[in-house]
Write the C-alpha coordinates for this entry.
Amino acid sequence: MVKRKTKQNKKITVNTDEWFRLDNAATLYSLISSPKNTCMFRLEAGLTTIINVTVLQKSLETIISRFPYYRVNLQPGFFWHFWNSNPEVPHVEADTPAPCEEMAITKNNTFPFRVRAHGNRIAVEFHHSISDGYGALVFLKTLLSQYFQLKGIKGPLWQNVLKPGELPDPAEYEDAYKKHCRHFVPSPPKDPQVFSLPFKTDFSIPDIRTTGTISLKQLLPKVKKLNISLTDFLAALLLETFQDIVYTIPFAKRKNKMKPLRILVPVNLRNIYSSKTMRNFTLYVNPQIDPRLGKYSFNDILKNVFHYMKSSVNPKNISMQIKRNVRAELHPLLRATPLLLKKILLRVVSLFMYAQTNNAVLSNLGRVEFPAAVSEHVTDVQFILPPGRGVKICLTLTSFQDTLYLNFLRGHREPEIEKRFFRKLASLGIRVTILDSQKGYTHGHL
Protein backbone atom coordinates (compact mmCIF):
# COMPACT_ATOMS: atom_id res chain seq x y z
CA MET A 1 0.00 0.00 0.00
CA VAL A 2 0.96 3.63 -0.32
CA LYS A 3 3.02 4.81 2.63
CA ARG A 4 1.25 7.42 4.68
CA LYS A 5 2.52 9.59 7.51
CA THR A 6 -0.43 10.37 9.72
CA LYS A 7 -0.22 13.69 11.52
CA GLN A 8 -2.38 15.17 14.28
CA ASN A 9 -4.73 16.70 11.73
CA LYS A 10 -5.26 13.23 10.14
CA LYS A 11 -3.71 14.33 6.84
CA ILE A 12 -1.16 12.30 4.89
CA THR A 13 1.82 12.63 2.63
CA VAL A 14 2.24 10.14 -0.17
CA ASN A 15 5.50 8.67 -1.39
CA THR A 16 5.24 9.10 -5.17
CA ASP A 17 7.52 6.08 -5.75
CA GLU A 18 5.04 3.70 -4.09
CA TRP A 19 2.30 1.38 -5.35
CA PHE A 20 -0.97 0.08 -3.97
CA ARG A 21 -3.48 -2.68 -4.62
CA LEU A 22 -6.69 -2.34 -6.57
CA ASP A 23 -9.97 -2.32 -4.69
CA ASN A 24 -12.28 -5.31 -5.00
CA ALA A 25 -14.39 -3.91 -7.87
CA ALA A 26 -11.34 -2.51 -9.66
CA THR A 27 -9.80 -5.97 -9.74
CA LEU A 28 -12.69 -7.19 -11.89
CA TYR A 29 -12.84 -4.11 -14.15
CA SER A 30 -9.11 -4.26 -14.85
CA LEU A 31 -9.42 -7.87 -15.98
CA ILE A 32 -12.54 -7.66 -18.16
CA SER A 33 -11.72 -4.38 -19.93
CA SER A 34 -11.54 -4.79 -23.72
CA PRO A 35 -12.31 -2.88 -26.95
CA LYS A 36 -15.88 -4.23 -26.84
CA ASN A 37 -16.25 -3.57 -23.13
CA THR A 38 -14.20 -0.48 -22.32
CA CYS A 39 -15.32 -0.15 -18.66
CA MET A 40 -15.29 3.64 -19.15
CA PHE A 41 -17.89 6.18 -18.02
CA ARG A 42 -18.21 9.90 -18.60
CA LEU A 43 -19.32 13.04 -16.78
CA GLU A 44 -19.69 16.21 -18.82
CA ALA A 45 -20.65 19.80 -18.03
CA GLY A 46 -21.77 22.53 -20.37
CA LEU A 47 -20.53 26.04 -19.56
CA THR A 48 -22.00 29.41 -20.43
CA THR A 49 -18.82 30.41 -22.30
CA ILE A 50 -16.28 28.78 -24.62
CA ILE A 51 -13.61 26.88 -22.69
CA ASN A 52 -10.14 28.34 -22.42
CA VAL A 53 -8.10 25.16 -22.87
CA THR A 54 -4.90 26.77 -21.56
CA VAL A 55 -6.62 27.68 -18.30
CA LEU A 56 -8.23 24.24 -18.10
CA GLN A 57 -4.82 22.57 -18.53
CA LYS A 58 -3.34 24.71 -15.77
CA SER A 59 -6.30 23.84 -13.55
CA LEU A 60 -5.77 20.13 -14.17
CA GLU A 61 -2.08 20.41 -13.33
CA THR A 62 -2.96 22.26 -10.12
CA ILE A 63 -5.54 19.81 -8.79
CA ILE A 64 -3.98 16.46 -9.72
CA SER A 65 -1.79 16.38 -6.60
CA ARG A 66 -4.97 16.55 -4.47
CA PHE A 67 -5.98 13.18 -5.95
CA PRO A 68 -2.88 10.98 -5.58
CA TYR A 69 -5.02 7.81 -5.83
CA TYR A 70 -5.92 8.93 -9.40
CA ARG A 71 -2.39 9.99 -10.30
CA VAL A 72 -1.47 6.42 -11.05
CA ASN A 73 -0.78 3.97 -13.85
CA LEU A 74 -2.05 0.39 -13.99
CA GLN A 75 0.77 -2.16 -14.07
CA PRO A 76 0.55 -5.93 -14.58
CA GLY A 77 2.09 -8.30 -12.07
CA PHE A 78 2.34 -12.06 -12.43
CA PHE A 79 -0.94 -12.66 -10.55
CA TRP A 80 -2.69 -9.27 -10.28
CA HIS A 81 -2.64 -5.72 -11.59
CA PHE A 82 -1.48 -3.00 -9.23
CA TRP A 83 -1.43 0.81 -9.20
CA ASN A 84 1.91 2.54 -9.57
CA SER A 85 2.29 6.26 -8.85
CA ASN A 86 2.51 8.22 -12.10
CA PRO A 87 4.92 11.18 -12.07
CA GLU A 88 3.62 12.51 -15.40
CA VAL A 89 1.14 15.36 -15.86
CA PRO A 90 -2.26 14.60 -17.44
CA HIS A 91 -3.16 16.65 -20.51
CA VAL A 92 -6.50 17.97 -21.72
CA GLU A 93 -7.57 16.24 -24.93
CA ALA A 94 -9.83 17.37 -27.74
CA ASP A 95 -13.23 15.75 -27.40
CA THR A 96 -14.55 13.31 -30.01
CA PRO A 97 -18.09 12.39 -31.13
CA ALA A 98 -17.70 8.91 -29.60
CA PRO A 99 -17.80 8.96 -25.79
CA CYS A 100 -15.92 6.48 -23.61
CA GLU A 101 -13.55 5.09 -26.20
CA GLU A 102 -11.16 2.36 -25.12
CA MET A 103 -8.24 3.49 -22.97
CA ALA A 104 -4.89 1.66 -22.89
CA ILE A 105 -4.66 1.93 -19.11
CA THR A 106 -1.69 -0.46 -18.81
CA LYS A 107 0.44 1.58 -21.20
CA ASN A 108 3.31 3.26 -19.39
CA ASN A 109 2.50 6.71 -17.96
CA THR A 110 -1.17 6.46 -19.00
CA PHE A 111 -3.64 7.79 -16.45
CA PRO A 112 -6.86 5.82 -15.79
CA PHE A 113 -8.89 8.90 -16.67
CA ARG A 114 -8.88 11.68 -19.25
CA VAL A 115 -10.15 15.24 -19.43
CA ARG A 116 -11.68 16.33 -22.72
CA ALA A 117 -12.92 19.66 -24.02
CA HIS A 118 -14.73 21.01 -27.05
CA GLY A 119 -16.50 24.34 -27.46
CA ASN A 120 -18.24 25.07 -24.18
CA ARG A 121 -18.18 21.47 -22.86
CA ILE A 122 -15.80 19.83 -20.38
CA ALA A 123 -15.83 16.05 -19.91
CA VAL A 124 -14.02 13.68 -17.57
CA GLU A 125 -13.91 10.03 -18.58
CA PHE A 126 -12.88 7.51 -15.93
CA HIS A 127 -11.95 3.87 -16.22
CA HIS A 128 -14.06 2.02 -13.66
CA SER A 129 -10.96 0.38 -12.22
CA ILE A 130 -10.00 3.65 -10.51
CA SER A 131 -13.34 4.92 -9.19
CA ASP A 132 -17.10 5.11 -9.63
CA GLY A 133 -19.43 7.98 -10.52
CA TYR A 134 -19.13 9.55 -7.07
CA GLY A 135 -15.34 9.83 -7.28
CA ALA A 136 -15.48 11.23 -10.82
CA LEU A 137 -18.04 13.84 -9.78
CA VAL A 138 -15.89 14.99 -6.85
CA PHE A 139 -12.95 15.31 -9.26
CA LEU A 140 -15.03 17.29 -11.78
CA LYS A 141 -16.23 19.68 -9.07
CA THR A 142 -12.66 20.43 -7.99
CA LEU A 143 -11.57 20.90 -11.61
CA LEU A 144 -14.37 23.37 -12.32
CA SER A 145 -13.82 25.35 -9.12
CA GLN A 146 -10.11 25.68 -9.92
CA TYR A 147 -10.90 26.64 -13.52
CA PHE A 148 -13.24 29.45 -12.52
CA GLN A 149 -10.83 30.65 -9.85
CA LEU A 150 -8.10 31.01 -12.48
CA LYS A 151 -10.61 32.76 -14.73
CA GLY A 152 -11.04 35.38 -12.01
CA ILE A 153 -14.60 34.52 -11.01
CA LYS A 154 -15.49 36.04 -7.64
CA GLY A 155 -17.69 34.49 -4.98
CA PRO A 156 -17.90 31.15 -3.16
CA LEU A 157 -16.01 28.58 -5.21
CA TRP A 158 -14.97 25.89 -2.71
CA GLN A 159 -18.04 25.06 -0.63
CA ASN A 160 -18.11 21.26 -0.10
CA VAL A 161 -15.38 20.82 -2.73
CA LEU A 162 -11.97 19.17 -2.24
CA LYS A 163 -9.41 21.96 -2.51
CA PRO A 164 -5.89 21.81 -4.05
CA GLY A 165 -3.18 22.10 -1.44
CA GLU A 166 -5.05 20.03 1.11
CA LEU A 167 -3.64 16.62 1.95
CA PRO A 168 -6.01 13.69 1.42
CA ASP A 169 -7.76 11.98 4.31
CA PRO A 170 -6.42 8.41 4.73
CA ALA A 171 -10.02 7.17 4.43
CA GLU A 172 -10.09 8.32 0.81
CA TYR A 173 -7.67 5.48 -0.09
CA GLU A 174 -9.47 2.58 1.54
CA ASP A 175 -10.80 -0.53 -0.14
CA ALA A 176 -14.20 -0.16 1.48
CA TYR A 177 -15.39 -3.54 0.22
CA LYS A 178 -12.78 -5.39 2.27
CA LYS A 179 -13.26 -3.07 5.24
CA HIS A 180 -16.99 -3.77 5.42
CA CYS A 181 -16.90 -7.43 4.39
CA ARG A 182 -18.65 -9.78 6.84
CA HIS A 183 -17.18 -13.16 6.01
CA PHE A 184 -19.76 -15.21 7.92
CA VAL A 185 -22.87 -14.07 6.03
CA PRO A 186 -24.29 -16.25 3.21
CA SER A 187 -23.81 -15.42 -0.45
CA PRO A 188 -26.81 -13.99 -2.32
CA PRO A 189 -28.95 -16.26 -4.52
CA LYS A 190 -27.98 -16.45 -8.17
CA ASP A 191 -30.08 -14.56 -10.72
CA PRO A 192 -31.46 -16.68 -13.59
CA GLN A 193 -30.91 -15.66 -17.20
CA VAL A 194 -33.11 -12.95 -18.68
CA PHE A 195 -35.20 -12.85 -21.84
CA SER A 196 -33.02 -11.76 -24.75
CA LEU A 197 -34.51 -8.65 -26.32
CA PRO A 198 -34.63 -8.80 -30.15
CA PHE A 199 -31.77 -6.37 -30.82
CA LYS A 200 -28.32 -7.42 -31.96
CA THR A 201 -25.29 -5.44 -30.83
CA ASP A 202 -23.41 -4.02 -33.81
CA PHE A 203 -19.73 -3.62 -32.92
CA SER A 204 -19.03 -1.98 -36.29
CA ILE A 205 -20.70 1.27 -35.15
CA PRO A 206 -20.03 3.52 -32.17
CA ASP A 207 -22.57 3.46 -29.34
CA ILE A 208 -25.61 5.58 -30.18
CA ARG A 209 -26.65 8.25 -27.69
CA THR A 210 -30.10 9.74 -27.17
CA THR A 211 -30.57 12.53 -24.63
CA GLY A 212 -33.84 13.70 -23.16
CA THR A 213 -34.58 16.44 -20.62
CA ILE A 214 -37.52 16.85 -18.27
CA SER A 215 -38.42 19.69 -15.92
CA LEU A 216 -38.17 18.45 -12.34
CA LYS A 217 -40.92 20.87 -11.33
CA GLN A 218 -43.16 18.99 -13.72
CA LEU A 219 -41.95 15.46 -12.95
CA LEU A 220 -41.37 15.28 -9.20
CA PRO A 221 -44.96 16.13 -8.10
CA LYS A 222 -46.25 13.25 -10.26
CA VAL A 223 -43.69 10.86 -8.77
CA LYS A 224 -44.38 12.09 -5.24
CA LYS A 225 -48.07 11.28 -5.60
CA LEU A 226 -47.08 7.65 -6.16
CA ASN A 227 -44.98 7.64 -2.93
CA ILE A 228 -41.94 6.23 -4.70
CA SER A 229 -38.50 7.50 -5.64
CA LEU A 230 -37.58 8.89 -9.04
CA THR A 231 -35.28 5.92 -9.67
CA ASP A 232 -38.07 3.44 -8.82
CA PHE A 233 -40.48 5.24 -11.14
CA LEU A 234 -38.14 5.25 -14.14
CA ALA A 235 -37.02 1.65 -13.49
CA ALA A 236 -40.67 0.55 -13.54
CA LEU A 237 -41.25 2.49 -16.76
CA LEU A 238 -38.22 0.85 -18.38
CA LEU A 239 -39.40 -2.62 -17.34
CA GLU A 240 -42.82 -1.91 -18.82
CA THR A 241 -41.10 -0.79 -22.03
CA PHE A 242 -39.26 -4.12 -22.21
CA GLN A 243 -42.52 -5.98 -21.54
CA ASP A 244 -44.22 -4.13 -24.42
CA ILE A 245 -41.36 -5.15 -26.74
CA VAL A 246 -41.68 -8.79 -25.65
CA TYR A 247 -45.37 -8.75 -26.53
CA THR A 248 -44.67 -7.48 -30.05
CA ILE A 249 -43.02 -10.84 -30.74
CA PRO A 250 -45.51 -13.43 -32.08
CA PHE A 251 -46.63 -15.83 -29.36
CA ALA A 252 -45.37 -18.88 -31.25
CA LYS A 253 -41.83 -17.42 -31.26
CA ARG A 254 -41.74 -16.22 -27.68
CA LYS A 255 -43.66 -18.89 -25.75
CA ASN A 256 -40.71 -21.22 -25.20
CA LYS A 257 -38.20 -18.40 -24.66
CA MET A 258 -39.97 -16.44 -21.94
CA LYS A 259 -37.67 -15.49 -19.06
CA PRO A 260 -37.54 -12.62 -16.52
CA LEU A 261 -36.86 -9.02 -17.50
CA ARG A 262 -34.33 -7.41 -15.18
CA ILE A 263 -32.52 -4.09 -14.74
CA LEU A 264 -29.19 -3.55 -12.99
CA VAL A 265 -29.35 -0.48 -10.72
CA PRO A 266 -26.07 0.69 -9.08
CA VAL A 267 -26.21 1.74 -5.42
CA ASN A 268 -23.71 4.15 -3.84
CA LEU A 269 -22.68 2.27 -0.70
CA ARG A 270 -21.24 5.40 0.91
CA ASN A 271 -24.82 6.28 1.83
CA ILE A 272 -25.14 2.98 3.71
CA TYR A 273 -21.72 2.60 5.33
CA SER A 274 -20.65 6.26 5.80
CA SER A 275 -17.46 5.73 3.84
CA LYS A 276 -15.17 8.51 2.56
CA THR A 277 -13.40 6.36 -0.02
CA MET A 278 -12.65 7.97 -3.37
CA ARG A 279 -12.17 4.59 -4.97
CA ASN A 280 -14.99 2.26 -6.02
CA PHE A 281 -17.75 1.59 -3.52
CA THR A 282 -20.81 0.68 -5.55
CA LEU A 283 -22.86 -2.49 -5.85
CA TYR A 284 -26.09 -3.36 -7.60
CA VAL A 285 -29.70 -4.31 -7.07
CA ASN A 286 -31.80 -5.94 -9.79
CA PRO A 287 -35.54 -5.14 -9.96
CA GLN A 288 -37.37 -7.46 -12.30
CA ILE A 289 -40.66 -8.80 -13.61
CA ASP A 290 -41.36 -12.30 -14.92
CA PRO A 291 -43.60 -12.32 -18.03
CA ARG A 292 -44.08 -16.08 -17.62
CA LEU A 293 -46.53 -15.22 -14.85
CA GLY A 294 -48.63 -13.04 -17.15
CA LYS A 295 -48.71 -9.45 -18.31
CA TYR A 296 -48.13 -6.78 -15.65
CA SER A 297 -49.95 -3.46 -15.43
CA PHE A 298 -47.81 -0.39 -14.80
CA ASN A 299 -49.15 -0.22 -11.22
CA ASP A 300 -48.16 -3.85 -10.70
CA ILE A 301 -44.63 -3.10 -11.89
CA LEU A 302 -44.42 0.01 -9.68
CA LYS A 303 -45.38 -2.02 -6.60
CA ASN A 304 -42.95 -4.77 -7.57
CA VAL A 305 -40.03 -2.37 -7.97
CA PHE A 306 -40.90 -0.34 -4.86
CA HIS A 307 -41.04 -3.32 -2.51
CA TYR A 308 -37.99 -4.95 -4.05
CA MET A 309 -35.88 -1.80 -3.67
CA LYS A 310 -37.04 -1.28 -0.08
CA SER A 311 -36.10 -4.82 0.88
CA SER A 312 -32.81 -4.90 -1.05
CA VAL A 313 -31.07 -1.57 -0.37
CA ASN A 314 -29.98 -2.15 3.22
CA PRO A 315 -26.78 -3.33 4.96
CA LYS A 316 -28.00 -6.91 5.48
CA ASN A 317 -28.70 -7.63 1.83
CA ILE A 318 -25.75 -5.63 0.50
CA SER A 319 -23.40 -7.47 2.87
CA MET A 320 -24.12 -10.72 1.01
CA GLN A 321 -22.92 -9.18 -2.27
CA ILE A 322 -19.81 -7.74 -0.63
CA LYS A 323 -18.98 -11.13 0.90
CA ARG A 324 -19.49 -12.94 -2.42
CA ASN A 325 -17.22 -10.57 -4.35
CA VAL A 326 -14.46 -10.36 -1.74
CA ARG A 327 -14.53 -14.12 -1.20
CA ALA A 328 -14.10 -14.66 -4.95
CA GLU A 329 -11.04 -12.41 -5.05
CA LEU A 330 -9.50 -14.18 -2.05
CA HIS A 331 -10.19 -17.71 -3.31
CA PRO A 332 -6.90 -19.65 -3.26
CA LEU A 333 -7.35 -21.04 -6.77
CA LEU A 334 -8.02 -17.62 -8.28
CA ARG A 335 -5.14 -16.04 -6.38
CA ALA A 336 -2.78 -18.74 -7.70
CA THR A 337 -3.97 -18.30 -11.31
CA PRO A 338 -1.62 -16.22 -13.52
CA LEU A 339 -2.93 -12.85 -14.66
CA LEU A 340 -3.35 -13.85 -18.32
CA LEU A 341 -5.55 -16.81 -17.41
CA LYS A 342 -7.53 -14.66 -14.98
CA LYS A 343 -8.40 -12.30 -17.83
CA ILE A 344 -9.74 -15.11 -20.00
CA LEU A 345 -11.68 -16.71 -17.15
CA LEU A 346 -13.25 -13.56 -15.74
CA ARG A 347 -14.30 -12.18 -19.12
CA VAL A 348 -16.38 -15.30 -19.62
CA VAL A 349 -17.74 -15.23 -16.06
CA SER A 350 -18.63 -11.53 -16.22
CA LEU A 351 -20.46 -12.01 -19.51
CA PHE A 352 -22.72 -14.53 -17.82
CA MET A 353 -23.06 -12.69 -14.51
CA TYR A 354 -24.01 -9.31 -15.97
CA ALA A 355 -24.85 -9.51 -19.67
CA GLN A 356 -26.98 -12.66 -19.56
CA THR A 357 -28.65 -11.81 -16.27
CA ASN A 358 -29.58 -8.17 -17.01
CA ASN A 359 -31.38 -6.46 -19.88
CA ALA A 360 -30.17 -2.96 -19.07
CA VAL A 361 -28.40 -0.70 -16.61
CA LEU A 362 -30.18 2.26 -15.00
CA SER A 363 -27.81 4.51 -13.05
CA ASN A 364 -28.97 7.65 -11.23
CA LEU A 365 -26.08 9.89 -10.17
CA GLY A 366 -28.58 12.07 -8.33
CA ARG A 367 -28.74 15.82 -7.89
CA VAL A 368 -25.50 17.59 -8.80
CA GLU A 369 -24.73 20.75 -6.85
CA PHE A 370 -21.81 23.13 -7.29
CA PRO A 371 -20.74 26.14 -5.22
CA ALA A 372 -22.91 29.16 -6.13
CA ALA A 373 -20.16 30.96 -8.06
CA VAL A 374 -19.60 27.85 -10.20
CA SER A 375 -23.23 26.89 -10.67
CA GLU A 376 -24.19 30.16 -12.35
CA HIS A 377 -21.65 29.42 -15.11
CA VAL A 378 -22.79 25.82 -15.74
CA THR A 379 -25.69 25.04 -18.07
CA ASP A 380 -26.00 21.27 -17.64
CA VAL A 381 -24.35 18.17 -16.20
CA GLN A 382 -24.71 14.78 -17.87
CA PHE A 383 -23.59 11.24 -17.13
CA ILE A 384 -22.78 8.67 -19.84
CA LEU A 385 -22.32 4.92 -19.40
CA PRO A 386 -21.71 2.58 -22.38
CA PRO A 387 -23.71 -0.66 -22.45
CA GLY A 388 -20.63 -2.83 -22.79
CA ARG A 389 -20.74 -6.38 -24.06
CA GLY A 390 -24.13 -8.10 -23.97
CA VAL A 391 -26.24 -5.59 -22.02
CA LYS A 392 -28.63 -4.05 -24.53
CA ILE A 393 -28.83 -0.46 -23.29
CA CYS A 394 -27.82 1.91 -20.48
CA LEU A 395 -29.96 4.72 -19.09
CA THR A 396 -28.17 7.29 -16.92
CA LEU A 397 -29.75 10.13 -14.95
CA THR A 398 -28.46 13.40 -13.52
CA SER A 399 -30.41 16.26 -11.97
CA PHE A 400 -29.05 19.78 -12.21
CA GLN A 401 -31.04 22.81 -11.08
CA ASP A 402 -34.58 22.25 -12.45
CA THR A 403 -33.68 19.71 -15.14
CA LEU A 404 -33.42 15.93 -15.23
CA TYR A 405 -31.05 14.70 -17.95
CA LEU A 406 -31.71 11.20 -19.30
CA ASN A 407 -29.04 9.64 -21.50
CA PHE A 408 -29.62 6.38 -23.35
CA LEU A 409 -26.58 4.68 -24.84
CA ARG A 410 -27.06 1.56 -26.97
CA GLY A 411 -24.88 -0.65 -29.13
CA HIS A 412 -27.61 -1.72 -31.58
CA ARG A 413 -29.12 0.26 -34.45
CA GLU A 414 -32.81 0.14 -33.52
CA PRO A 415 -34.02 3.09 -31.38
CA GLU A 416 -37.08 1.13 -30.25
CA ILE A 417 -36.39 1.13 -26.51
CA GLU A 418 -35.85 4.86 -26.01
CA LYS A 419 -38.69 5.78 -28.41
CA ARG A 420 -41.18 3.69 -26.48
CA PHE A 421 -39.81 4.90 -23.14
CA PHE A 422 -40.10 8.61 -23.98
CA ARG A 423 -43.56 8.09 -25.48
CA LYS A 424 -44.68 6.46 -22.24
CA LEU A 425 -43.52 9.53 -20.33
CA ALA A 426 -45.42 11.75 -22.76
CA SER A 427 -48.57 9.63 -22.34
CA LEU A 428 -48.39 10.33 -18.60
CA GLY A 429 -48.46 14.06 -19.30
CA ILE A 430 -44.70 14.52 -18.83
CA ARG A 431 -43.14 16.75 -21.49
CA VAL A 432 -39.80 15.48 -22.76
CA THR A 433 -37.33 17.49 -24.85
CA ILE A 434 -35.01 15.43 -27.06
CA LEU A 435 -31.54 16.94 -27.57
CA ASP A 436 -28.99 16.45 -30.31
CA SER A 437 -26.31 14.56 -28.41
CA GLN A 438 -23.49 16.00 -30.52
CA LYS A 439 -24.48 19.66 -30.56
CA GLY A 440 -26.71 20.00 -27.50
CA TYR A 441 -29.54 21.90 -29.17
CA THR A 442 -33.25 21.14 -29.11
CA HIS A 443 -34.22 18.47 -31.62
CA GLY A 444 -37.89 17.95 -30.79
CA HIS A 445 -40.53 17.37 -28.18
CA LEU A 446 -42.70 14.50 -27.05
